[in-house]
Structure formats: C-alpha cells, structure tokens
Amino acid sequence: MENAIYTDGSSIPLGDGSIRLSRIRNRDEKHIRVYRKKAEDGSFCLCMVSGIENNPQAYRNAVTGWLREYARVRLGEKVLQYAKQMQVNVNRIAIKEQKTRWGSCSSKGNLNFNWKLVLMPERIQDYVVVHELAHRKEMNHSPAFWAIVEEIQPDYKERRAWLREHEREFLPY
Which of these, 7, 24, 130, 154, has the minimum number of CB atoms within 10 Å of its CB? Predict the structure, then answer.
C-alpha cells in the first residue's frame, strides 16, 4: 500500500540523500503539522506532529504537502539559476502531481514540475529544469533543442538515461 511509505520510522529519498519520518504524538486530532528537524548526528528528519490515528491518507497528504512546498522553493531556485545562465524568461512555475510527466513548458513560458522530482538526485532535477528551459528557445525536440541542453549539460544523455531507467521507483510516492 503506497500510504505505508509515510509511516513513523520510514525513510524517503530527498535529492542526493534521504529523510526519515518521525511521528510525534500530541492531542490535536484534527491537524497534522509537518516540519524538518536536524538530528544530533547531522541528518534530518521530517516530524509529523498529530493525535490523528489510523488515517494513513491524512499523513500522506500532510507529508506530500510539505514536499510540494519544498519542491516549489527548491525547483524555483534552480529555475532562476538556469534561466539566467540560459538567458531565457519564465512566466509562472507550478508544482503538480502528474502521473507521467516530470516537467512541461508552455509557449507562454509557464513551467510545470512534478513535486516528486525533488525525491530524485540533484543532477536529475537539474536536467529536467534545463530541459524545460530549453523549450523557451525551441518548443520541440529538434537537434537545435538538444544542442541547447547539451551546451548547459554536456552529460545530458546520461542524466536522461538515468531518469528513464529509474523513474518508476518514484511513482509510488
């Protein structure tokens, strides 16, 4: 069951590492508060504070809500960095939960990213961001498009292959 991923003590991937989920019980039976905390050993855990019992979907929603906000900030930073480097403009950035896409770009410059992208290694996140920003110059997958991607990421073929090989591992989240 996919909601079992979000239980006390489980660990989920996050960028180049992972983060452990820690359930902290309190008396609030209506809300789940989620925050990141640094442990004494330097690792991070994602604390889920609530009195809600026997509702794995509520915990999934709370944790994915935190992850979506994390994705909004993290991917937004990457977009700003690479957009400047690639000299392209972006209109709006949206974080969604798509079933089959990691990112998309509209002709108006609106970028959409799947929040699950932040679970993947940083270099793969960077690849998807650069891929979508390259569409600001070429709205297709022509040789000219791939030349733009390659200019920023000469190893984009390896990154693309990694994504194709491993993307199914991130779908249950």
Answer: 154
For 20, the enclosing helix (H) or strand (E) is strand 17-25
- DSSP structure string for 102-162: SEEE-TTSEEEEEGGGGGS-HHHHHHHHHHHHHTTT-SS-SHHHHHHHHHH-TTHHHHHHH
Express each pLDDT in 59-113 by its tens digit: 999 999 999 999 999 999 999 999 999 999 999 999 999 888 999 999 999 999 9
Say if CB 94 and CB 68 are below 8 A apart.
no
Strand partners, 103: 113
Domain CATH code at residue 155: 3.30.2010.10
Q: What is the pTM of this model?
A: 0.92
Tokens describing residue 65: 């809500």
Domain count, the chain: 1
> What pLDDT is stored for residue 3 in this prediction?
65
The residue segments making up the domain with residue 57 are: 2-170
